[in-house]
Amino acid sequence: MPKTARGSRRLSRSGYLLGFGLGGFFDAILLHQILQWHHLLSLVEGVGDIRNQVLFDGLFHALMYLIAAAGLVTLVRGRHELAREGAARLLVSNALIGFGTWHVLDSILSHWLLGIHRIRVDSSAPLMWDLIWFAAFGVGPVLLGLLLRRRGRILHSGQVAAALLVFAVLGGGVWAAQSPSDARSAIAVFQPGMSDGHILTAIRNSGGSVVWTSSGIWAVQWSDAGGGVSDLYRDGALLVSNSYLAAGCLAWTRI
User: What sections of the protein cross the membrane (predicted)?
Assistant: First the structure.
């Protein structure tokens, strides 16, 4: 495959992935944190109180980080294509399509098929809010992205478009990582090779207790708001949800 074609595909994929991740961050920031209209599993019976709801929100945030990180890596690998004509339009239009695709999938799967939450769970007309959101933030951005990709002229520089998109994704990710002021729980992932005994000791040293664990993911709960997140990082955690990602990124240096 020609080098130019590979670069174009990377540029296209990076736009889709970054837009999709940004859509998830937008959902988390606006609906979970600012408006507090729902949590990821608001309508799932047996999940428990707000502490467990926040835990699953944390897993959702972690997934969005992985998708956004994949987009950033793909963008870096295709960075040489940013100088060619039309790169800015391709990147931004695909990001809009990715952003809208997130909301389309969330509406179809989470709201209507699985029923794990609605846009406004306390509304007397939840379908109305679902449809408004589906049109405004799902179908609308997808159509706008398709239109821009075919006809639109936006930024002349692919480098500028990439920088603005990366800034939006990183800024959204940091904001989404903020925990509620009264949060007493989080999801933690520890270094590969750490035994369960060492992890349990680290959790106890932070003043926390284990809510549940599955496939190397630990749900931790503290008696005080804020918990001992910094203690977990000190004792081997790679990532703790509902904390700023940058703090977790430094933990890999101890491996």
Answer: 16-35, 55-75, 87-105, 131-148, 160-177
